[in-house]
Amino acid sequence: xxxxxxxxxxxxxxxxxxxxxxxxxxxxxxxxxxxxxxxxxxxxxxxxxxxxxxxxxxxxxxxxxxxxxxxxxxxxxxxxxxxxxxxxxxxxxxxxxxxxxxxxxxxxxxxxxxxxxxxxxxxxxxxxxxxxxxxxxxxxxxxxxxxxxxxxxxxxxxxxxxxxxxxxxxxxxxxxxxxxxxxxxxxxxxxxxxxxxxxxxxxxxxxxxxxxxxxxxxxxxxxxxxxxxxxxxxxxxxxxxxxxxxxxxxxxxxxxxxxxxxxxxxxxxxxxxxxxxxxxxxxxxxxxxxxxxxxxxxxxxxxxxxxxxxxxxxxxxxxxxxxxxxxxxxxxxxxxxxxxxxxxxxxxxxxxxxxxxxxxxxxxxxxxxxxxxxxxxxxxxxxxxxxxxxxxxxxxxxxxxxxxxxxxxxxxxxx
Amino acid sequence: xxxxxxxxxxxxxxxxxxxxxxxxxxxxxxxxxxxxxxxxxxxxxxxxxxxxxxxxxxxxxxxxxxxxxxxxxxxxxxxxxxxxxxxxxxxxxxxxxxxxxxxxxxxxxxxxxxxxxxxxxxxxxxxxxxxxxxxxxxxxxxxxxxxxxxxxxxxxxxxxxxxxxxxxxxxxxxxxxxxxxxxxxxxxxxxxxxxxxxxxxxxxxxxxxxxxxxxxxxxxxxxxxxxxxxxxxxxxxxxxxxxxxxxxxxxxxxxxxxxxxxxxxxxxxxxxxxxxxxxxxxxxxxxxxxxxxxxxxxxxxxxxxxxxxxxxxxxxxxxxxxxxxxxxxxxxxxxxxxxxxxxxxxxxxxxxxxxxxxxxxxxxxxxxxxxxxxxxxxxxxxxxxxxxxxxxxxxxxxxxxxxxxxxxxxxxxxx
Amino acid sequence: xxxxxxxxxxxxxxxxxxxxxxxxxxxxxxxxxxxxxxxxxxxxxxxxxxxxxxxxxxxxxxxxxxxxxxxxxxxxxxxxxxxxxxxxxxxxxxxxxxxxxxxxxxxxxxxxxxxxxxxxxxxxxxxxxxxxxxxxxxxxxxxxxxxxxxxxxxxxxxxxxxxxxxxxxxxxxxxxxxxxxxxxxxxxxxxxxxxxxxxxxxxxxxxxxxxxxxxxxxxxxxxxxxxxxxxxxxxxxxxxxxxxxxxxxxxxxxxxxxxxxxxxxxxxxxxxxxxxxxxxxxxxxxxxxxxxxxxxxxxxxxxxxxxxxxxxxxxxxxxxxxxxxxxxxxxxxxxxxxxxxxxxxxxxxxxxxxxxxxxxxxxxxxxxxxxxxxxxxxxxxxxxxxxxxxxxxxxxxxxxxxxxxxxxxxxxxxx
Amino acid sequence: xxxxxxxxxxxxxxxxxxxxxxxxxxxxxxxxxxxxxxxxxxxxxxxxxxxxxxxxxxxxxxxxxxxxxxxxxxxxxxxxxxxxxxxxxxxxxxxxxxxxxxxxxxxxxxxxxxxxxxxxxxxxxxxxxxxxxxxxxxxxxxxxxxxxxxxxxxxxxxxxxxxxxxxxxxxxxxxxxxxxxxxxxxxxxxxxxxxxxxxxxxxxxxxxxxxxxxxxxxxxxxxxxxxxxxxxxxxxxxxxxxxxxxxxxxxxxxxxxxxxxxxxxxxxxxxxxxxxxxxxxxxxxxxxxxxxxxxxxxxxxxxxxxxxxxxxxxxxxxxxxxxxxxxxxxxxxxxxxxxxxxxxxxxxxxxxxxxxxxxxxxxxxxxxxxxxxxxxxxxxxxxxxxxxxxxxxxxxxxxxxxxxxxxxxxxxxxx
Lengths: 415, 415, 415, 415
Fold this sequence. Notes:
Four copies of one chain form a homotetramer.
Chain A: E1 3-6, E2 33-35, E3 40-45, H1 60-63, E4 74-79, E5 87-97, E6 110-115, E7 133-140, E8 143-146, E9 154-155, E10 159-164, H2 169-183, H3 209-218, E11 225-226, E12 229-230, E13 242-246, E14 254-262, E15 270-275, E16 278-287, H4 290-293, E17 301-303, E18 314-320, E19 322-323, E20 328-329, H5 334-350, H6 356-365, E21 369-374, E22 382-388, E23 412-413
Parallel strand pairs in A: 1-3, 2-4
Antiparallel strand pairs in A: 3-16, 4-14, 5-13, 5-16, 6-7, 6-15, 7-8, 7-23, 8-9, 10-12, 10-14, 11-12, 13-17, 14-15, 18-22, 19-20, 21-22
Helix pairs in contact in A: 5-6
């Protein structure tokens, strides 16, 4: 079992740990610890909100969450010998919720899924579900159940929502430039088009004073995936995966967090995964000069592990890039097509007795597949959503008998 | 073995068959044959271009293809008792290329993949690959190889690219209205935003005269997926799949064609599948009133079959919604994110000795997975492309040794 | 599509084909046709009994079957350049029932599973089920149902029950010697310990007269698997498989037959597969001197294909090497342990309303897994039988509600 | 995370734990702790030998192991309300090696595989490999490597080798009777046919004096699988599995141990798994009267979990029930057939540079499949062994180029 190189006491905020983490991307954030190529080690993580969400039946905490604190990351881990242009090889050896602890922090035996309010970031279906909701999940080894979504039990597809290397100053400047330009297209939009640097809530390890100020002013928010990996929300980064990250700064400065006990493709309700704190065991290595050797100019690449839960019987919903309510057509818009597939799945599940919100929370968290199906057949993109039927303890397939309707309870709502 | 209800002689055009098929969607196209719920039957199909493409080493035919003839469909099959509001249950029992024939028509022992020229429809990467190219594939049972892309052999994921029910007159009117509105946003665009009805090349079974004229003027082009299913290009509609189609007209009027020996998610080069003529064996049934019962208001739903080829080791490429060349950011644009993932895969494969065009042709045709990974993390959508490593007869994984570079031949080009 | 090198007219006995096959293993049986390494070709096959069994509701034909005619094989195929000591590489490209024909021969739209009577060969559970029974299966593409076993529908795992190369004269002599020695241990046993050469019913291609006499006197019966492959009944030899056969005679002389639409591990009722006639498409190649190079001294080896039906949820029955009725223990006897696992599965299925015979017929034909679990824990071998739960159209899993009992009909019985 | 109900301090023998476990099956062994149906809990385990084997390069400890101490089990766990005739439902929620500890006890970051000497129990191939050997495995999350078998790295299929309920006095008497009868068939055999009760080394929780004496005289050895489950060595009892155990005594008295980080079917070298101490998280429930309801008269049944490592490309070796060295035939002997398949695999791997012992150790520990293929085709049983090719870091498939021979080191040997 590997030694722990980044410790987290789940009873304390990330700010109050002996070695605190960070919540912005910036090359100046100092390494929290160093490892060598070939080494294996454990990193402990807080949940992405630093435990702002509680194990209760009210969604007030989801409604009121302070996003300037997010994502609360562990790291950076310096990798000796890593230089810009290398590929950093990262093996995810194992990961999971906080071991052998029951408590009030996410990951201590439980996790949560939230639908964010439109005024606070929204989500993929925010025009249809503008308010805040929540589901609490109990963890049973690799499986999970929720008192807020009865009738389902499934095997989690556990992964880090966020993992990445630090940007160089040049790369960071490009990020800020292009995201600022996007925001300026509609600066008052709710939810916003992108999130600019913000000084509130910033944490940058042990940095203080003017050094911290610099990170606060320039540091990229951690919400999107970018060239460094980051918040990719790729559910298939399960144990056994090997990731190849581009290296932009000396020592690579690998950081991670936002652990997900499970998540469907797209993490559609923004906080759609089962969010947990926990641990992640890693091995690292280097391919010197690998970015040029393998033509990796932008994003990481990876090989998924062998330990994904095996679901093979699916009910698949389809969507095309048409806004049906207004009979309006969009050009090869895969985002819209996938949104329609999600809405079609929700309408279907409502016929079995679930609320739309329950279905939305389920589709974000269960191991569903979201696929690009047709992307060239003008004008309609076509996307499909694969829902494993074994997730349900009743038969969810269409039949001449019709759906088994039942009282299926209720998600947590805001007061 | 089921009886054949729609016959195709592969030595003749679809126009010259005893009972011809059709190449537009219109409720007035008469049924070619009738079946009863519970019945199993075979339908024979031409390739989607009606055999405009040849088994040779020139891409001139791809460059010059006449798209007004496409897609050449078999049907409509009338299903007795089907009424608007029902769900038509369609079991894909089996399908494949033209049985036991070797010849000049696609599907007679071979298939093709094309990159369409930008001036003739283009494709997903048309700004990067504006010209016409082609690869010919030899079929070996369930596997395939190409003289134009040496070093690969894979198991096809055979499916109908296009299958659907007929629209009602009202639904057809909605299609024409919304697609016309889209075209008007940029009527001169190359390639166009959508394809309006066109009289050239129309075929509507045995209709002639003013009845044919009506179909020619109003009939929807078959290129996009729509509420009736249609050209969904869902690679997972393999043998064993069960599809639930909305019924919009009496007798449902099921049509199909555009058989694919194999295709990756997205069929990215527009003609990216391995295109074949062949046969498809179906069973049909009805869920009366099923659209309302199951909340199916727009698209079909389906359950994939158990016979998909098993690939489990993948190399995964990632893309985000950034136009990196111009450092320009787009808002949660999954289409762009998937395009970037495709470009990243192509750059990678070029390091092994393939041309970009070969890689593009391969990604369209091999059983790759294209997934929506992050769709809420503003501003960047994140998509991922899963390439099965067993497709290659060399080790395509990254390593410290670097890629195995070799002369890997050449795709077919236009003169 | 490959050319057919061995033709079968399903309306005629194998004896009356233009080029007849054979039903004994002997090096002197002349090649029926020749192929070259690298070639792909089709072979047509009769069912293993040469159509002694009919599509009806009586098991009299199973009871009265003449086993001296079995297995009726297609071949031998001579492979140019093959020499003793080589490995013959055989790719199973595709296979299936008789294409596009409905008729009275097995494989013409239907197949059968039989329980043989103890007096006529018996089966794995013959002490428990000594009489003859039958189930007829209708084929629906890759799936099958039986009027004799309602409530099940499954995807076949289609494979040749029997495929192998010809023995040399020396190897044949060894077979005859060791099997004769075994028979002599209990010559009157019913069923017998092994089957010696028998002149009745022999067929050896076009051989006649003294040459045929020689084959009749010496030719090994085709029932067991031996060094040449033969009747291995390996259900995983599905399309896409590559087999490496030892070569014992010049030209290898490959023969095959006994096609199975589906079969569970063990083919437990002797005629436990869904027996069909049909076709098999093959490719061949050679590894010169491969037996020595790869240490292949006895049996073939193979790589399974990618197209096996995907079942992942199983109910698993266990057995150990104890004769529980008499509380008698056997030493690491995997045969007995697997028999007990089969009996345990049958007792379980009877609780849902099936007869023991129906359950027995089902376990032989459905894609069940039979595994060696413990083979060293003295004195008990432990074997396990994995039954895919999706085979049933009701929930077959144990629960506090108890089994869903129903009238589940009846297998075909002998008059 | 469940509470721990059975604690083990890995620095102490099982005898010296606060609540010791046991190493015999006997109804009088008192419960160590009690749980209620519906409860989830953790049990900690020693490796099966109570840490007689060390992390070093000598097999002396394997040669000299004291088997009277084995298997050292945790439990019995009493389940409130369980009565004879019930089915005890046991969910394996999670399991693994000793968490976060590095040390000298098996499971503290490492595990071992042993070939037992013929004079000390032997193994499946003891006539071919009569001496003691060992391999040490380092654990990397879900994967493992061995300095004694370089060139392989694989994902473990972690499971309890041994788990079962207590026998009733009547059942225990039947075991002793039938095993004694077996031993009497050849009392001097080496290795013995079965292991009778033995007083040396007995441990029965806190029992002492005459109560302990009774257990010592009557208690069944834990080596074989029996009606209560026990040492079934079923590699597929991975996390997510649900087992249904027959209940023979009040409170069921569930015990477990012999955790395996990984094991191939058959655990062929007797100590063929990667043996570890560690933890197992369980949930329990009851189906009252379930033995009668579901016809469970002898062995447990189970449903495998969804988290088995996904290997899909295999090299398969075949064996039939012939002793080839003497050309001697056995009647449908699956044990012999599987032994031949193992020997064929070993001969093959030797061609790549492994010693026979390394290959033997690998086949016992890696996630290989061992299948009953033909069990009715008189006189030859046919078994097959599926070796995942991805286990190796070189290409292990047969080809015209021949095997990649290399110096592949050496297993640990006895001095």
